[in-house]
Amino acid sequence: METAEKTAFLSILTNLLLVAINTGLAVATGSLAIKANAIHSLSDIVSSVIILLGIKISQRSTPTFPYGLYKLENLVALSTSLLIFYAGYEICHEVFGKPQPQLEAIPLAVTGIILTILINWAFSRYELKKGEQTGSPSLIADARHNWTDMLSALVILCALIGDAIGFAIDRYAALIVVAFIARSAFAIFLDSVRVLLDASLDYPTLDRIREVVLADPRVSAVNAIWARNAGRYKFVELDLSFNIRDMGKGHALSQELAGQIKKEIENIDRILIHYQPHPKDYITIGTPLTDDRLSISEHFGEAPCFKLITVFLRDGTITEEHLLLNPFLQEEKGKGIKVAQWLLQNRLDVLVAKRPQEGKGPGYVFGSAGVEVLLTEETDADKALAAAGKELHTPIPEGGERDD
Question: 171 and 45, same structural domain?
Answer without folding.
Answer: yes
